[in-house]
Design goal:
19 strands; 31% helix; globular; 14 helices; single chain; 22% strand
């Protein structure tokens, strides 16, 4: 923080502070404080523009003074990915919020990038609608979800939030407001901004599909003990064509041995009296949970079929499991994201266990082969690097990948966060086209872009 503070003392710094205050208003522009960091990199100024035109002026000011700009939403994922090379101006999108006025029942909604996702859902629910977006980060803004490429359980049926985009408005590095969407090329550009961590443009608003809130939601859960068992169960669920909205997995760090269970216990678990009660598995067991949505009669019928298919200690509930839509990692952990064809998910989890020398927490969309895992934050960086190398070696032959989502600073400096990335040349070309002077979140993208 001392380096950031001293950099604001050089000639011109006071003029920049004054100009930011004029653009954003006195309460909304200031010198950065101790909490204003991006993956450990301190900012120099914080600007909270009141609208797209003010945000554009901030970017034009940055361009004139060759300053870097890093957008921030609610800050729930500010430590994800690589640390930027520098953070001159942190552009807070909190005032770029609101939901566009659409006709009642319209199939789309335009939402300001700084709008908290839960506020969007609360507003839409008043008219019986929703976004099929359920990102796990509490308090996340829509812009932050898109910029980080974050998705929750509903991606199984509806795709990620980026898949649901119909268009975006964003500011380029020179402060020009651009509308992307309405055609194949525009939509491709809009989706290119997803997961870019603000390094290709500053999102102002996004237009997404809206759908009717399902009349009924039921979770069918079953305890699981091994990755291979999960593989077999997921294959059974998908083959049954029950149209699940989500198929999620929670494997704790140390599941115990599978208990023996007699036929009477299995029969009692499926008894009608158990309907609506979540079956409680043995301590240490993992859980497979399947969400079914739709009309009440249809969902109930599909749930009965699924309970029969899963057998064992499967149960039915009208509320989500406690771990649903939550990451298995916490602050300070090394968080991994594994993406692999679903047929090879068990191989990836076994490879991670073998490399780590013990089971590690794994949670995520087993029905898509996208899960997160957590390594202890105290683990030595070279140990993390060796685990990554082993897991990536297994995934390479299976067309999968393992990405470090977030990590302590020492680990972040010592390991390759992304591994091999086939799309790097395309990403490099996009960066050179959209931000040739590398002023937007420089260094946040793979390859130091």
């Amino acid at each position: 923080m001392a380096a950031a503070a001293s950099s604001t003392d050089r000639p011109g710094a006071l003029d920049i502070t004054r100009r930011l205050t004029e653009i954003c208003g006195p309460p909304f522009a200031r010198l950065a404080g101790p909490a204003d960091e991006v993956a450990g990199r301190p900012a120099r100024w914080v600007a909270v523009p009141g609208g797209p035109h003010a945000a554009a002026e901030v970017l034009r000011l940055a361009a004139r003074h060759d300053l870097s700009v890093v957008p921030r939403g609610a800050g729930t994922k500010i430590d994800w990915g690589a640390a930027p090379d520098r953070v001159d101006i942190m552009l807070d999108t909190g005032r770029l919020a609101g939901i566009g006025h659409e006709p009642l029942g319209a199939p789309t909604a335009e939402v300001g990038a700084g709008t908290p996702l839960r506020a969007v859902q609360a507003t839409l629910e008043r008219t019986g609608q929703r976004l099929a977006v359920d990102a796990p980060s509490p308090g996340a803004t829509l812009g932050g979800v898109l910029a980080a490429g974050e998705a929750g359980p509903l991606r199984h049926r509806h795709g990620s939030p980026c898949d649901q985009l119909l268009g975006v408005r964003y500011l380029d590095a020179d402060g020009e407001l651009v509308n992307a969407g309405g055609g194949i090329d525009g939509l491709e550009l809009a989706r290119l901004l997803c997961g870019s961590q603000g390094a290709l443009g500053v999102l102002v608003s996004a237009t997404l599909r809206v759908q009717t809130v399902p009349a009924s939601r039921i979770w069918v859960t079953r305890p699981v003990w091994t990755p291979l068992e999960v593989h077999d169960l997921v294959r059974t669920v998908l083959a049954a064509r029950l149209d699940p909205a989500a198929v999620e997995l929670d494997l704790p760090a140390g599941p115990g041995p599978r208990p023996r269970q007699g036929g009477r216990a299995e029969s009692m678990a499926r008894h009608p009296s158990m309907t609506g009660r979540a079956s409680v598995g043995p301590a240490g067991a993992g859980r497979l949970a399947v969400l079914l949505e739709g009309g009440p009669a249809d969902v109930a019928e599909r749930a009965d079929r699924l309970v029969t298919l899963l057998g064992g200690r499967s149960g039915v509930s009208h509320s989500a499991p406690q771990w649903w839509r939550r990451y298995p990692f916490g602050p300070g952990d090394t968080a991994l994201r594994i993406e692999v064809p679903i047929a090879d998910l068990h191989a990836a989890v076994y490879a991670l266990r073998d490399a780590a020398g013990a089971p590690v927490p794994v949670r995520g969309s087993a029905g898509l082969g996208v899960v997160h895992a957590a390594l202890p934050g105290a683990m030595a960086p070279d140990r993390v690097a060796s685990i990554l190398a082993a897991v990536r070696g297994v995934l390479l032959a299976r067309q999968g990948r393992c990405v470090v989502v977030s990590a302590p600073a020492a680990v972040r400096r010592a390991v390759d966060l992304w591994g091999e990335l086939a799309g790097l040349p395309r990403l490099r070309a996009a960066k050179e086209h959209l931000d040739p002077h590398h002023r937007l979140a420089p260094g946040r993208l793979p390859g130091g872009l």
